[in-house]
Amino acid sequence: MRALLLCGLVLAGCTAAPPPPAGGPTGQALYRSFDPQVDALLAQMTLAEKIGQMTQADQEFLTDEAHIHTYALGSILNGGGSDPVTNSREDWTAMVQRYQDLASQTRLGIPLLYGVDAVHGHANVVGAVVFPHNIGLGATRNPDLVQEIAHVTAREVRATGINWTFAPSVAVPRDDRWGRTYEGFAEDPALVASLGEAAVRGYQGDDPGAPDRVVACAKHFAADGGTTLGTGITLDGVDYPFDRGDARISEAELREVHMQGYVTAIAAGVATIMPSYSSWNGVKASASRRMLTEIIKEELGFEGFLISDFAAIDEIPGDYRSDIETSINAGMDMVMVPARYELFVRTLTELVEDGSIPMSRIDDAVRRILRVKFAAGLFEPDWSAEPLHVAAFGSEAHRAVARQAVRESVVLLQNREERLPLAAPLGRIHVVGAAADDIGIQSGGWTIDWQGATGAITKGTTILEGIREAAGPGTEVTHSADGSGAEGADVIVAVVGERPYAEMFGDDLALRLPEEDAAVIATASGAGVPVVTVLLSGRPLVVPEVFEASDAVLAAWLPGSEGGGVADVLFGTFAPTGRLPFTWPRTVAQQPLNLGDADYDPLFPYGFGLGY
Ligand code: BGC
Predict the structure, then answer these.
(1) How far, in Å, CA of 376 to CA of 19, rounded?
(2) Rounded distance, CA 267 to CA 28, Å?
(3) Does 503 qualify as catalytic in the annotation?
(4) Which of 21, 31, 388, 593 has the fewest CB atoms within 10 Å of its CB?
(5) What does pTM read for this prediction?
(6) Whose CA is closest to atom 12 on ligand 1?
(7) For residue range 344-372, what is the model confidence (pLDDT) as tens digits?
(8) Could you give all domains of the chain from N- to C-terminal order, each with its CATH number?
(9) Catalytic residue among 183, 246, 309, 325
(10) Residues with beta carbon inside 6 Å of ligand 1?
(11) How many Cα atoms are found within 13 Å in the side-chain-facing hemisphere of 524?
């Protein structure tokens, strides 16, 4: 409402942003179709207002909320772990509303694009449904399901007044030792291209301004999943071997392997793209005119805008002034600053005033940002749409979609003597491992906190709770975190796996179980009871002891909040259909190991998955 009123003051005919008529422009043409309104608005903007639009601050770093108004900021984000003081849907909504109110009081009243990492559901918000991470969705091979998941996520995001998710990742992780492997759908570019496109369609539909859709962001362009061992970032004296590293690959490999997801996402109309922290042959993506302007915009015909990664331009060699100059001139449109936004605004202003950055580049950036704002329906009176989705947020209906995703994501790797499905009558099932009863572990990184966290961090059903429900009244279900107490049970279900991590901290050269969980397997396997193991991990692990000790092994990835889906597979309510989205190596020395490699000798090949 405020936006419309204020917009009316300055722009005759500003209401001319109705949702696109059926049969109207879609894909990238949608954004261009708003150019008449955009150009009229652009013509009235001062340099300060234009630079404001190009600036994205993290709400956590606002030294004064009024700066949204002072600098006419174009966008706010909540980066990982940047939550309102108490984390509830209501508090998120109130926070967003407060910031939008400040934006509406600026001279032009241009609403904020408000970004969040809803990368597996709106998982920063307590009570949202948490879906499997993309690696699990890759195992489903089901684009319709991925599209539905993104649509449900869009509704949950809109239930907090937010209009933009930094998803999907269309990374093609090639070396599973990279800590962001689970954010990718698969090692195979064709599968990434298909599921990435489905996700964009689910988030945005044909009309990202529809009340049940959000603006999507394909990330991180490109070859974030193709960095070379030993080239990653060093932070506080710690070397991360892959993350933010250098992809030393030919342009042919860049295109054939790492760009495929962008081609389909752009065709599906993705509104924003995030250039990667990583480099391509020594040049940071954020600094590469070749990548940002020549390839993404000129060649692939992208008409939306580029949003930098979190302080990513700061990692371009040189001082901050030259970082800004290089990145904006390379084609970056909006900068996720996220903290020193006052310095950013001041420096970018100087760079334009002294001619280091041409005004035409600023106008191109702002035009692209405003196109997306119009397409996102932000100039409509009812842009928030929050009330429409309150009841559906975290609802049973949404949880049912997630549970189905979990069922379809589980890959049965081993099933000696057809130990699975668990068949009645079972007197006692002994569940072991701390991970069996831990929503945080089963959800992984990017859940409530940036790196994720262990424990009862949000609502949902743990795998243990799912087993209790599925087992029914005739079967006793016992649990021990350390693996003890199995004697006399009919079967052991061991739930073991990686502890939550996200970018940087997940880089791992060993790909082993944590010691605590290796001990659980050792203890459990000494009890003389058949063992079924559920592996929770963001990638294939090198765990010969698990395959040795277990009759059956299920790879459940990072299933999210609906642990009942794992139980459905254990009990055969749902027979497994999941297929490996990543090659499962025999040894860590085989990494990187991918489908099509010359000396391909995996433990389980890409696409492997047993049924009942
Ligand atoms: C990550 C992005 C994320 C951004 C905002 C960065 O550190 O690389 O994937 O969208 O933070 O939270």
Answers:
(1) 9
(2) 7
(3) yes
(4) 21
(5) 0.96
(6) 79
(7) 999 999 999 999 999 999 999 999 999 99
(8) 2-14+31-375 (3.20.20.300), 410-590 (3.40.50.1700)
(9) 309
(10) 79-80, 117, 166, 219, 309-310, 503
(11) 34
